[in-house]
Amino acid sequence: MKKILLGTAIILLVFLAGCRDKPTPEDRLAEYVSQWNKSGFAVMYENYLTTETKEAFPEDEFAARQEKLVEDLGIDHLEVTYDKPGENPKWDKEQPAEFDIHVKMETLAGPVEFEKPIRLRYEEREKEKTWFVEWDPSYIFPDLEPGDEIGISRTEAKRGEIVDRAGIPIAKNGTGYQVGIVPEKLDEARKSDIAKLLGTTSEAIDKSLNAAWVKPDLFVPIGKSAKDDAARLDRLIEIPGIAAREIGMREYPYGPALAHLTGYIGAISAEQLENLADKGYTETDQIGRRGLESLLEDRLRGRDGMKITIKKEQEGLEPVTVAERAAEDGETVKLTIDAELQKVAYDAMMGEPGTAASINPGTGEVLTLVSSPAYNPNEFIAGMSGARYSELEEDEKTPLFNRFAQSYAPGSTIKPITAAIGMEAGTLDPAAGLTITGKTWQKDTSWGAYRVSRVHPEAPNPIDLNRAMVYSDNIYFAQQALAMGKDTLAEGLKQFGFGEPIPLEAMELKASQISNDGTIGSEGQLADTSFGQGQMLTNILHLASMYEPILTGGTMHKPTLLFDEEDGQVWKEGLVDPAHAETLRSTLRNVVVDGFAQSANLTDVPIAGKTGTAELKAAGEDRGKENGYFVSYPAENPSFILAMMVENIEDNGSSDYVAAMSAEVHRYAAGR
């Protein structure tokens, strides 16, 4: 019985297998289209093409060619569909089965879409009897015929320029010079001089001169020179055999003065190319490498025009355009920066290491962002040698270091903010005087060896707020901080923006901090913090912004750098009572008139402000390095607030050295 049942089952399976439908033309087409949509060209060729198609087109003309086109043309989002047949279609193995297909794709030159019929034929092969697809190159693009070539051409878009608030270019598409050699005129003995001037090597020059295309009378490019480097170009031109041709080149008219703000562009790196492959970059592209050139890359970068064409094999036929996208130039980005004011501020710092920032107190617009010293971005555009870059890296003044993006101990420039917090808390009465004697002070013996020091013990008692500010009395502010308490001072500083990101679009600036962990842990730290020492750090732009409430009656605006961004946005408000702000304005004017910023006490340009010195004590020394500050504004027409810091001023007359630099900026602004 078991044998009978087993035999019956086998007979039934054979019968069912014989009854099962063979794949229909639609089944085969659906499989083919599925492979097509995922660019499975090798599988399509191997398993789905008719014998006649394979004889006409070797695999490399089908699979390898289409794989390369996907890469070269940037083909993406390929979508192939077909029209389904009606109900219960009848297929005749002696006749082709025909369908309509629809092809859509995205390319570097834009979308491509077409539809056309496709045929399948039934073939009986040794291993397989089923339907196979007839194919020719028109299924790549409709006008493509055997022997035709597909090409892609590119129209370069212009990079957007960066301009200041008056529309003056600070990064523009200018010109420079291509330096080259006419071999038959070259003085071989001068080759090393040429290499030195161009920051290259004699071997590199020889490699260019030995290229296969070179002829004795042809101009052979060997380097570039920026337009602002006329002295070097003149020296090169004097050498026999050297010539120069004007070429398009990115240009930075203000050179080092705006270098850390604009940054520069350079050749795209292999890593960047890989990361940005989906954005259409190529190995010959230039890309923002530092500063706003990098941060605004998406806005500044143009979109190159692309055109895909079919070059017909038959002579006399015009190329056929498959897809075309017009070039779109990059955006011109306008900043709130005042380029001329920035240059004056940079020059006033005389190459000293430091930073400066200025803002419009009524709007929050950033007028200057200076890092001194700096590099010349035009050198990078022309091509900087490794030796020259090493020279910049090893310079003790670190010109490659962007100081306005960092934060530093603010010293006594924070005292007006401490005073404002105390007055708002009701613990500081500006008219009440304290009796302070001696050069140092401590609350009691619980402070151990720690004592607060002041620079001017000769300050006459009683010491009220005005006198404390004029004489920059650390002991006064330490005692006021103790009166208000750790929590009050810390919370007040947070209200001024400490411990949170500086909301400046397009720039990355280090946030200001009260301390490393954002709290004040001891009375000694409380005292230090009150006069800008301890672990307190501020960013130079934020420091300028913190003086805004003194001029606006309590409001601190969100700083803006992009001209098209809405200005006058409130960042913080209610920070200083208008009456207290008036008191602070009077006091800050007296700091310049009666205090120790006499270099800024100009007869024709009344200035108000606060000096500051931050001591950076070195291990094992009683006195280390000092950074000097001056935060100032025009007293009668406060159209801008300027915060300036210079490093290592201990041998240059303390913070008055910085006040003198700031005065140059005020003179310029007043005379415009």
TrEMBL record:
Residues 354-659 form the Penicillin-binding protein transpeptidase domain. SUPFAM superfamilies: beta-lactamase/transpeptidase-like (SSF56601), NTF2-like (SSF54427), Penicillin binding protein dimerisation domain (SSF56519). GO terms for molecular function: penicillin binding; peptidoglycan L,D-transpeptidase activity. GO terms for biological process: cell wall organization; response to antibiotic. Pfam families: MecA_N (PF05223), PBP_dimer (PF03717), Transpeptidase (PF00905). PROSITE patterns: PROKAR_LIPOPROTEIN. Belongs to the transpeptidase family. The keyword Membrane applies. This is Penicillin-binding protein. The keyword Cell membrane does not apply. It comes from the Bacteria. Residues 24-147 form the NTF2-like N-terminal transpeptidase domain. PANTHER family: PENICILLIN-BINDING PROTEIN 3, PEPTIDOGLYCAN D,D-TRANSPEPTIDASE. GO terms for cellular component: plasma membrane. Residues 155-314 form the Penicillin-binding protein dimerisation domain. InterPro entries: Beta-lactam/transpept, Beta-lactam/transpept-like, MecA_N, NTF2-like_dom_sf, PBP_dimer, PBP_dimer_sf, PCN-bd_Tpept. Keywords: Membrane. It is found in: Membrane.
